[in-house]
Amino acid sequence: MKKDLISIxxxxxxxxxxxxxLTKDVKANKSKYECSLKSKCIGLIFQKPSNRTxxxxxxxxxxxxxxxxxxxPSEIDMGGRExxxxxxxxxSRYLDGIVARTYNHEDAKxxxxxxxxxxxxxxxxxxxxxxxxxxxxxxxxxxxxxxxxKLSYIGDxxxxxxxxxxxxxxxxxxxxxATPKGYEPKIEMARIARSIxxxxxxxxxxxxxxxxxxxxxxVIYTDVWxxxxxxxxxxxxxxxxxxxxxxxxxxxxxxxxxxxxxxxPAHRGQEITDEVIDSKNSIVYDQAENRMHAEKAILLRLxx
Length: 304
Ligand code: CP
Ligand code: NVA
Prior knowledge:
With 304 residues, the protein is of the alpha/beta class. It folds into two domains: 8-128 and 290-303, Rossmann fold (3-Layer(aba) Sandwich); 131-287, Rossmann fold (3-Layer(aba) Sandwich), CATH 3.40.50. The chain contains 13 helices and nine strands. The strands form two sheets. Strands 7-6-5-8-9 form a five-stranded parallel sheet. A four-stranded parallel sheet has the order 2-1-3-4, with helices on both faces. α1 packs across α13, α2 crosses α13 and α6 (129-143) packs across α13 (284-303). The protein is globular. The protein binds phosphoric acid mono(formamide)ester and norvaline. Phosphoric acid mono(formamide)ester binds at residues 50-53, 123, 131, 263-265.
C-alpha cells in the first residue's frame, strides 16, 4: 500500500479489498481497535467546508485512541500564508498524518510529495477517494458482492464520480453513467476507469441519457449539481441539469428494490427529490455512517 491516499487509482484491487475487509471488522468490533492509534495525532487541513469528512475523521481518530486537530482556512491558508512545501515539512514534525481538503488536486499531491507522514485526500476538485472506498463498502454490505450489481450514477461528472468510477472498475462493479453534455467525468479518469475495467471485466458506460442509465439499476447514485468552488455556475447548471433529477418518474425505470445513494450534502428539490431521498430504499445515512468506519480502516493501514 502506498504512503498516501491521494487518488483511488494509486490503490490496487488487493489494497482496496483489504481496506473493505478491515472496514467490516472495524464496524463490527469497535472495541478491538480502541487503542490501535494511541497517542497518534492527525491534522485536518481543510480549505472548504465539511460535515461528514471532518466529523468522521475526528471521531474515528478518537475511537482509535488518537487525536485530531482541525486546521481550517483561517489557520493554515496553505499556499497563501506559507507554501505547500513548508506546511508539509513543518506539520510532518508534529503530526502522524494529514487529511487535506483542497480546491486544487495538485496541492494535495504536492503536500503528499513533501510530507514525511501519510497524506489522505479528503476531497479535491478532481477526486474524493475516501467517499469512493466507503461507498463501494456500502454497496458490498447491501448486496454481498460486486459482480452483477448495476450501479447508475446520474448527474454531474465531478470529483465524487471520478473516484467512484475508478473504484468500481477495480472491484468489478458495472456502472452506467449519465451526465449532461459537457459535464462528463474528467476524460483522463474515464480513460483510466475503462482500461482497468477491461482487465477486471466490469462495464463502465458513459451517456447523456438519464433514463437509459436508470434502466434496471440496482443502485442509483447522485451528487450535487454545483460542487464547492463552482457557485458562480449555479443558475446555469440548475436549468441544464433538471432532466437529470432523481425523482419518482426516473425511479420507475430502475429495479423495484433499487437503492438510492448520495454522498451528501444533498440539495433537495434539485438533484434529488424528498420523495426519493426519504424513501425506504434510500441508504444515504448508512452511507454517511460508513464514511467513519472506512476512514478508520484507512488510518489503521496508513498510520501504523
Ligand atoms: N460527503 C462529504 O464528503 O461530505 P462533507 O462535504 O460534509 O464532508
Ligand atoms: N461534489 C461535491 C461533493 C461534496 C462532498 C463537492 O465537491 O462539493
